[in-house]
Amino acid sequence: MKYLLAAIAGIWMADGLALLVAPRQVIARVREVLALSSAMLRWEGVAVCLGIILLLGSGGLHYRLLWTVTGVAMVIKGLFLAVGPQRWRTGVLEWCLQREAVDYRFWGLGLCTLAILLLNALGWLGAQ
Q1: Cβ neighbour number for residue 8 with a 10 Å cutoff
Q2: CA 29, 30, 32 angle in degrees (round to 5)?
Q3: Three-class DSSP category at 19
Q4: Of 37, 23, 40, 38, nearest to 98 (Cα)?
Q5: CA distance linking residue 120 with residue 128, whole number of Å
Q6: How far apart are CA 79 and CA 44, in angstroms?
Q7: What is the rounded average pLDDT for all residues in the chain?
Q8: Per the count of CB atoms within 10 A, which of 25, 35, 81, 82 is most buried?
């Protein structure tokens, strides 16, 4: 289970660094993918699964409340984007994709922070 949680941290770190370094390019690529096919939203099932793994696997880790809130948010976001009303999904996605670059950098910083905290809670960073 620790390796799955570390993989989640790795995904967060990769996404966060991409948003910190090149937010406009990342968002432009997301817009292209969504314009070509909304099938990308099927990947939200993966977000639901990873959220459940985070909820189930984080028992006994430091920052337990943070992992619970984050896991629940991942599940809710994934379910909303997978099965929510099309009109609402479109509105939310348009709003998210029209932010300023600095907004994406803050999200990137948050994802990097979550990754580091999860690796620390797993005992892979820092002294325990």
Answers
A1: 23
A2: 65
A3: helix
A4: 23
A5: 8
A6: 7
A7: 89
A8: 81
